[in-house]
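Mods, move this if it's the wrong board.
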Amino acid sequence: MVTLDWSRIDTVLLDMDGTLLDLHYDNHFWLEHLPQRYAEVNGISLVEAQTLVMQKTDALRGTLDWYCLRYWSEALKLDVPAIYREIEDRIALRPHTDNFLRSLRQMNKRALLVTNAHPDGLMHKLEVTGIDQWLDEIISSHDLGHAKESVLFWHSLQERQPFDPERTLFVDDNLHVLGAAREYGIANLLCIRQPDSRSPSREISEFPAIHDFDEILGAR
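Not the wrong board. Structure tokens:
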């Protein structure tokens, strides 16, 4: 059980994919749908395409290019943003996300979306889900020039949207990102155990972890 003292939290920083939204959409896109389109265009098997795409993406994991749809459009010679929209029916909120965001507003907490998502994909997901209505600010790492895995992102975020690290809660599903936030000094960190609803729940020991947001709303 994770217990938060909400009286000591002013700002809530929230990741998007795997935290507010089900990571199944992105996993399916990168592991299945995009390789399928690449295979069709290049006349190779799906397995060959999956191997090639995985090799290219793994080489850049944790960098801004890894998250950049325009970079992958150039690298793969495909209209990646257009292909991204072909499976938009898979975009979905994680359990209790809407209630959690409404509760933050009711508690007068400042809620900021801080995401590595490329602006093209980010805007698409906001159009589909409407979660931006509950957020005070939306910040993409592409606007700051550093991925969240770098402590430089957090320094840049502080300059753009000042916050008190001691009175901030940050929720993410990425352990490397949470590590950078801890290095920067954010006091309250939470990890999501099951970012992809169709994958098993993870055992998380490095950070306090929850399955769903309803686990922390009871501590208001």
